[in-house]
């Protein structure tokens, strides 16, 4: 099989890139090892710049129609409002952060890809390595049980690895990475929404650590609790009790549809471009989920990459442009990592005197319009 571009990984970033390339008449194969689409909510926040990118592949209208538009963020502590942050000034087209489960986002992207080319996405195949002869790249493929009859190799002019934070292709290319670990652990879950917070995102800045709360479609709300140690086997009941202990609000454990625990680390690849292979999304930079930037950052990687791939396929020498792309996307990832680190720092436990001092600072910033607007733009990746 030979195509213009092979995309390794059929998650949200790989599917977006496939749609963007297919719209330009570029032949694509997306190699995805999962037999079925992701069914978990996972990432939920889509920021305005990413919505603009998704609009270009005709997916944004469906996303906006199904998602919850978060137009205001609120910080609370001890039952009192610390500050309010409106998002109405961050974008003319999308003055909000959209909340939609990643599973549905992926589904809509997959539908768009299949509409453009029904055979573009190939499931149950695992890319195990790449061989670059300077003119084309050969991807070694391992088919899983249930896969369609495919060749063991796929040839392409260019390869894009969108295969996640534990990228096998990045490892096969021996790309060094810089890793950081953090003393931050989280437990999150989705419950029926009591509607006490409406469609606002609420941060509860409490002495034992932050609690985050976000509205979701279908009458759900996500709760995220910061922990000082890994959550272990904690379930919905324990998470609900943690939320009540810190905020006074008790989610109904019987309505829980998802519980997940995670510890935070970040990873930056030293190089995103190796010959005719490019790393995007988590394969190039894993960012803390706190702040919801990782998936969005991957979409913006792909958006910036599309014109370069088009020119490369036209035979134009682009080494300098690819190096510039690599520098700019690394700069964007470094900024996102720094913002995530600030978000985590603000959510760590504090003794009461320091908590009051921190909250007073946040309140003063929120009450200053220019600062409030600047912070809102940073939080929404503008």
Counted beta strands: 19
Mean pLDDT: 94
The end-to-end span amounts to: 40 Å
Name the beta content range. Answer: 25-35%
Structural class designation:
alpha+beta
Helix count, DSSP H or I runs of 4 or more residues: 10
The helix content, as a percent range, equals 25-40%
From the spread of the alpha carbons, the general shape counts as globular
What are the main properties of this structure?
alpha+beta; eight-stranded mixed sheet; globular; 382 residues
Spell out the blueprint of helices and strands:
Blueprint: E1 2-8, H1 12-22, E2 28-32, E3 45-46, H2 48-56, H3 60-66, E4 68-70, E5 72-77, E6 80-86, E7 97-99, H4 102-116, E8 121-123, E9 125-132, E10 137-143, E11 153-161, H5 168-172, E12 177-192, E13 201-204, E14 211-216, E15 220-227, H6 236-247, E16 258-269, E17 273-274, E18 277-279, E19 285-286, H7 294-313, H8 319-346, H9 352-367, H10 369-379
Helix pairs in contact: 1-4, 1-7, 2-7, 7-8
């Amino acid at each position: 099989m030979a195509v213009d571009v092979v995309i390794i990984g059929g998650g949200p970033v790989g599917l977006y890139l496939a749609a963007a390339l297919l719209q330009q008449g570029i032949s694509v194969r997306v190699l995805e090892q999962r037999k079925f689409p992701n069914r978990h909510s996972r990432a939920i926040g889509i920021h305005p710049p990413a919505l603009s990118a998704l609009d270009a592949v005709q997916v944004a209208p469906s996303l906006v129609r199904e998602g919850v538009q978060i137009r205001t963020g609120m910080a609370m502590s001890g039952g009192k409002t610390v500050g309010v942050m409106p998002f109405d000034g961050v974008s003319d087209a999308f003055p909000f952060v959209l909340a939609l489960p990643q599973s549905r986002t992926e589904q809509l992207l997959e539908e768009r890809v299949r509409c453009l080319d029904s055979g573009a996405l190939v499931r149950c195949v695992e890319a195990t390595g790449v061989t670059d002869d300077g003119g084309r790249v050969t991807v070694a493929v391992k088919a899983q049980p249930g896969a369609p009859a495919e060749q063991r190799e796929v040839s392409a002019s260019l390869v894009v690895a969108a295969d996640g934070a534990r990228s096998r292709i990045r490892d096969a290319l021996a790309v060094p990475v810089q890793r950081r670990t953090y003393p931050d652990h989280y437990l999150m879950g989705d419950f029926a929404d009591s509607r006490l917070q409406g469609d606002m995102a609420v941060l509860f800045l409490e002495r034992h650590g932050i609690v985050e709360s976000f509205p979701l479609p279908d009458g759900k709300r996500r709760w995220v609790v910061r922990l000082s140690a890994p959550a272990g086997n904690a379930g919905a009941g324990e998470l609900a009790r943690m939320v009540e202990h810190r905020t006074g609000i008790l989610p109904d454990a019987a309505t829980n549809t998802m519980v997940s625990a995670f510890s935070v680390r970040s990873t930056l690849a030293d190089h995103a471009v190796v010959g005719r292979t490019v790393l995007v999304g988590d394969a190039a930079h894993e960012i803390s989920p706190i702040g919801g930037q990782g998936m969005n950052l991957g979409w913006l990687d792909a958006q910036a990459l599309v014109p370069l791939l088009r020119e490369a396929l036209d035979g134009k020498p682009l080494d300098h442009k690819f190096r510039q792309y690599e520098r700019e996307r690394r700069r964007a990832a470094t900024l996102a990592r720094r913002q995530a680190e600030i978000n985590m720092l603000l959510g760590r436990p504090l003794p009461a005197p320091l908590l009051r001092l921190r909250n007073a600072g946040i309140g003063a910033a929120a009450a200053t319009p220019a600062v409030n607007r600047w912070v809102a733009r940073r939080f929404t990746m503008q």
